[in-house]
Hints:
B: CATH 2.40.50.100; five-stranded mixed beta barrel; four-stranded mixed β-sheet; 4 helices; C: 262 residues; four-stranded antiparallel β-sheet
Amino acid sequence: MKRPDGRSNEEFRTVEARVDVVSRADGSALFAFGNSKAIVSVYGPRQLYPQHLQNPERCLLRCYYDLASFSVPERKRPGPTRRSIEISYVMTKALEPAIKLEAFPNSVIDVYALIIDSDASTRCAAINAASLALANAGVPMKELVSAVSVGKLGNELVVDLTKEEEDFKVIKEGEEQKTTDIPIAFLSRSKKISLLQLDGKISAEELFKAIELGKKACLKISKIQERTLKKIKNIKK
Amino acid sequence: MEEEKAREIVVPGETIENRKEFIAGEGTRKEGNEIVAERFGVVDRSTKLLKVIPLSGVYIPRKGNTVIGQVIDITFNGWFVDIRAPHLGFLTIAECGKRVIKEDLSEYYKVKDILLAKVKSVKTRSIELTMKERGLKKLDEGLIILVNPTRVPRIIGRAGSMVNLIKKETNTTIVVGQNGVIWIKGKNVENELLAKKAIELVSEKPFIEGLTEKVKEFLENEKAGWKK
Amino acid sequence: MEVTNLTKKRIEELIARNKRLDGRSLLEFRKIFVEKGVTKKAEGSARVRIGNTEVIAGVKLNLTEPFQDTPDEGALAVNVEFFPIGSEKFEPGPPSVEAVELARIIDRIIRESHFINLKKLCIKKGELVWMVFIDVYPINDDGNLIDASIIASIAALKDAVFPAREEDKVKYGELTKQRLPLNDSVIGLTLYKLGQKFIFDPTTIEEEISQARITVGMSYRKKEFIHAIQKGGETPLSEEEIKEAIKIIIKKGKEILNKINL
């Protein structure tokens, strides 16, 4: 099967990655899969108020994800939704294991992700940008985090779904089958999974294959992240 | 690009070394035989103790650091001072370097005052400051500029060579806080601004070879421009 | 810690001598950079950079019933979101007073200058009209967000085309080639008072220590007209100062419209 944009099943869209895109932040990055584009700023580690939120054993990580109102087909009303609140939370959980939070007790690191253009897989773009922005902010980290979405389209497993693919439907044995969407994040060194979500319908064997496919893509993405950070022109502030 | 030194830049999670004889220093960890980077930065291989020198990041206070901070609040027993760290600095009456007899502590240091102080100790929730040493004082006049704290060693230079050069060429007094807050005081504002430009040049180009010469050249050119 | 009393004093001394910390003259802008069509999903978009300050604005259109008092006119809504990405001073949560004020300044400039011909957005009188949404996001605050946001909004409108329509439904994702019905030559600029002088395009430090500002929205067609004014800041201005400020702004507006590709 050929994908609508001509990619192979294992291929993610063209990636655009840059760091130091927001001079005011302690660290920042842009990461895009095709037309899914995230800008992330990191502020901190900094003082955390109110005091009751402070943890004497470690730093608090707060992620805040949102879509720009104009980044979707029909204008989104500004402000958080149930969806953005959940994504912010799973993003936090995806990044936490990579960060040496114990180095900064009672403080906070804030990660803000704004999606300025969307074409599915935005949470994955946001996690990739956040990992870059955290490293760019000089935050002590055990490793990087890389994320991609894997989808089951009909009988095929594919990497980095577009909106068109996400909305794809096939009739199989008289039954309408929708795309199964599986966002997944891997830690670059330990190769552990820090984000796994799924909605759709898939067998366990197929899911295991999907995870393998996601892993391969994530390792490629972590290499892109590494190269992006190392570009010498980015190393100044 | 050619004038930039080939530096060994690493990202978190990257293996720096896998030979047994090396030891994991700051910004790294040991994993089996491997030494792994835990920060984005440049590898320091000057000894067997490998370190990653960060290229970015907020100020992390250390005991003995000279810092410049701003008073942001006053309590019954001291002053809270913003030193651009993940926690506020606290200066107690006992450490304030003055004989305190009045109850109103703002008689000594007010909110918004800029203090040159030292880090006495670092605790999980607060950073204790002291002003009891010679030279530590409230700064009254001059220009304050902020740079990334990771640039401070470059700005100071080997045994103070860089900052001394800038001081001499611009005829200014300069104090570089380890927290990236720099105080410049000159005979006139033009001198202070020239020193500011020179410091920014150093801060923006940490990789360039022969930086001292470049700064010297820059300052001479600028000053020649004044005379015209 | 960005603005200290010491630096404030130095800036004021410099301004008194018609100089600025970054070497600019008092009425000089940093380099303005306008880029259109920066997001695919919006019907129009623009990124504006003034020095390190960066703003992205996007235009979305939908179909709606007209307001009862304007049955033959389309509708306009401007929103500014200080998403915390752009400054440590922005906080998540409901819009701040500053964001609402800025949105309303932009709204008034565009509405009162008739930059958009709202009558031409009417499809069926009393029943169906186009609604134009402008959403503005500051990406990096290094001062003068007001002017950057105004310019970004105007540029995004200029970039916008109508989406395809089927009866009273928008076919999102399908764009026509038809541009919005716009008039030309509209801009808004802000003059800040610092010490006893006026300056344009303050950096964050200058902005923080300025005592007053005045924003003027203008159009330059056969004649120059003023369409919106917002006096801000804590210090009042004298009548003479207001007159002087308005003259300076009108002159600068023309200059900038000629210089940038809006």
